[in-house]
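seq:
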Amino acid sequence: MLFLVSMKGFFFFCAGFLFLQQSHAQPTLTTAYDSLKTQLALKSDTVQIAQYQNFAEDMLRKGRVGDSQTALAEALSIAEKLQNERQISRVYESFGRLEIDQGNFAQALNYFQKALDYLKDSPALNQKILILLRIGQTYFLANDLKQAENYYRQGLKLADQNKRAVLMADTYSELANLEDTRKNSRKALAYNARAIALYQANGEDYTSALFNRAIEYKNAGLYAESERIYRQCLRHAEEQKDEYLKGYVYVNLPNTLL
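struct:
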């Protein structure tokens, strides 16, 4: 998420240079957006919605928030014209993620709630669960751990009832992070263990969960267990012939012995 001189003449030179940069950059943005609209003119409405969302995410990565908002507004307009509640929900979710990137957690929650409301009578269970997780993550970022846990558990219940094992694993990982923030190492370890078991059982990449678990053990002072988990990651990396992962393990492994 977000982790983002003195001489008078020099100051005015810099200010003028920045102004020129911005004045030349804006037509480029307009051209890119207009070009996209032209390309999508003959595409289906569903394709247009997806492409505008992709464009919005690309603009956000480049720090062009206004262009991202414009593209999402266009996507929302098309989705509303179609009266496609699932597509409308997805666009509102994108708006929410944009607001999180700006640190506007209250507005993000408003968009995520709208996204959830549009799925009230929808069979799109995976999408519902993911939005519940988004809401939980937003409360977590806003340091409201009680509400974060509430929405995580709603998502976990829905995932469990409908046998969405990987989404259950994702939720357990979020709960582990939450309990780590509360300094509840035992609960954090238990949730991470459940996440890892579910990832493994469903053939998913569980290295992230393994790393989290190793960190939890280290924070709890269980250095031998932490080392054991890192060596488990190392074996997995060797089996997969993943040199990048091996390097990452070798960097972190000595920390368990400090």
